[in-house]
Fold these 2 entries.
Entry 1:
Amino acid sequence: MATSYVGAIDQGTTGTRFMVFDHGGQVVANSYERHEQFYPEPGWVEHDPVEIWENTEQVVESALADADLDAEQLAAVGITNQRETTMVWDADSGRPIHNALVWQDRRTTDRVEELQDAGTVEGIREKTGLECDAYFSATKVEWILDNAEPLKLQSGRSRDLRERARDGELLMGTIDSWLVYNLTGNHITDVTNASRTMLYDIHEMEWDDDLLAEFDVPEAMLPEVRPSSDENLYGHTDPDGFLGAEVPVAGALGDQQAALFGQTCFDTGDAKNTYGTGSFYLMNTGEEAVESDHGLLTTVGFQLSGEPVRYALEGSIFITGAAIEWLEDVDLINNAAQTAELASSVDSTDGVYMVPAFTGLGAPHWDGRARGTIVGMTRGTGKEHIVRATLESIAYQTRDIAEAMEADSGIETTSLRVDGGAVKNDFLCQLQADIIQTEIARPVVDETTALGSAYAAGLAVGYWDDIDELRDNWRIDREFVPEMDSEKADAMYGRWDDAVERSLDWAREE
């Protein structure tokens, strides 16, 4: 009998990856493809869902071919995805009616401010655990239904989108739902992705009628909500489809919850931070949905079949890795690897602070009108100072979250598990340990987002017996301990607050 594996589709903000893992959690196949970013207006960000699906087919096929694997060797496939990114498609044709609105998209900021003025945000927070923000799916799907061009029917006439949505002719979902739909034909999401829509009550664990009414989203559009690891399966791939095999699709997690799962943060108090386009710091709070008084989100961490939901506190930082991309875009660096060399060529930033609020600020500030700011420059400021300030901004934003997390949970962070592309940068990891004044643990397998979704799917089909088996797979690559004096770290961090203050409430319409 051929050796079996578990596959993971990792659909992220900038591209799509397919990875195949063995029983020890080691990577045996890997393929990646970028997709285009669309910016129709300032603050607007869109993706083409058809391109995303075509890229998904491509990376699955190429990863299997490169590793000389057959799709029949996949015991299951799991999905992880950029969260909150929202789309609507025609249930009959499967055709999107508009580009997906990406989580970074700020076009519905005015609508959020209407809700704030109406005094409804506290009720939204109580039910969903979320700040009322354009980041989440509710105002995005509302905008699509209000603004997308109606699809013409075969008769040649067009019908109102909301009327079609009420009749179940249009489907709404985050990217996991889109992928599950294309893989299996079923309209399903998992509890973690549902919890990011601002339409789902995370205490009752159901779509909320009042929120659906507020945003005029018909329930007929919504996917069925399932556990993150589902023994009943989301469905199977079509044996006549692109894979040529009937493979169980058995689990899904939003990317940050998938990283929490992949880092084996299964116990209350376990925490991880993922450094991608943005950074996302999550702490497992167990079966208790801890309410935040410090600007954090309360969210669903994961759910295994037949078990209670596990909750998490989350600090969402919108721009970290994307700030490194910006340095490259404006020719301050040639590639991301150069940042460590440039930053370490100077002893400090010489008082320069960079606040990368390109799409507003997330936790704990929640200012959708904040914008990117560089302060403290002199005639002697060089690109190395700006590069170092950009890396420091990632560390400062993470400390913002770490302090809020400790205040809300009462749990002191003694070790933070990190993952994502940026943690390959030793300089950044050491800087992070210094600024937070805590140990940073980097695992051997740093693609923990894909690994987490593979674990969820594998558990569902019995590829792994239980989470203790997964704990045994986790291995540390390197630990970073604070080397900076705590008083110096505090002083550097103290000026960060001043820099943030100058970025706030900038994007005002004339």
Note: The mean pLDDT is 91.
Entry 2:
Amino acid sequence: MKIAYILNTYPQPSQSFIRREIRALEAQGHEVLRFAMRSADVPLVDVQDRAEADKTEYVLAEGKAALAGAVGRAVRRDAALVREALKGALAMGAVSEVGRQRHLIYLAEAAYVAERCAAEDVDHAHAHFGTNAAAVAMLAHLLGGPKYSFTVHGPEEFDAPRALSLGRKIAHSTFTVAISQFGRSQLCRWAEPGDWDKIHVVHCGIEPAKFTDPAPLPKGPRRLVAIGRLVEQKGQLALIRAMAQTTAPVHLTLIGDGEMHGQIEQLIASLKLKDRVTLTGWVYEARIKAELAAAHALVMPSFAEGLPMVIMEAMAAARPVIATYIAGTPELVQEGKTGWLVPAGDTSALAEAMDALAETSLEKLAKMGKAGRERVLERHDVAREAEKLAGLMR
């Protein structure tokens, strides 16, 4: 097939799962065109991201004249289709936080994308996230463009399902993808019951070849690593408070950067945890892998998630996981078998889980890591998941 991926900002360092999915589809013989509304606003360090940027066509970079020209040609081809698409754009804009004017821009972007898809003889369009990329895919379809699908990740989409018109986008799609069964259940809340059968689970995938030889668990005092943006939904403030409640001499390395960096740093100092918590800031992928190899477990204290890629990668690296009992996480992390699950925001339960890990023998931790590795490789092989996605497209 010839497939068009419709994306908002691409590539982005935090969304390597999209790149892996595209590459897996290409490895299976499909041709994938990349249409992004805009380029990343941060430097692309990863050579693979830079290669993706070179392959991507940026819609807004074409300029207003190109988008207006696409709209004009669409009107001349079929004014009735344009009227229907305009109604759809205005209806979404009426309930959206960004308003109708922004959705008229999405309509112009959609006209350009639909025209390009027609010129390239695209068989199917797929968007990631239920936000503006899905709106552009839907509007392009209403303008006579290819049938479309989109993947909803969460948690942001589930925070504003009405404002994002998820039900409308699902209704017009050929199928819609959730990345977990929990995600599917949330989409069923906003879709008409008659559309439930078109909502499917396709997991985000990892490349097993990159996790062929996991490092053995280190000896000595237990070391934990937490990886993620320093933002409210990731729960790092709760993690620092839990560290102050632990009785075992565990050490935490906190990897990532974000708007809450200063607050987290201040909390570490106020709780006198500087000797037990290392705050690294943003680091390269090689450092992340090294810190994971030096750790006995990953800890993920999130308040809201979809299904975190970092959990999949930690399990593939044969590391147990301490995580919160939210969203799709319990579908992957199994209490007592591959790690520990605690209620989100419960610092006492999180501290108890970290103490329990510290008291667990290396042999038991290695067994848990092995079970987690087997589980994630079975459920999240990117080649198998991409094949599942391609089957739905066919």
Note: The chain has two domains: 2-202, 209-379.
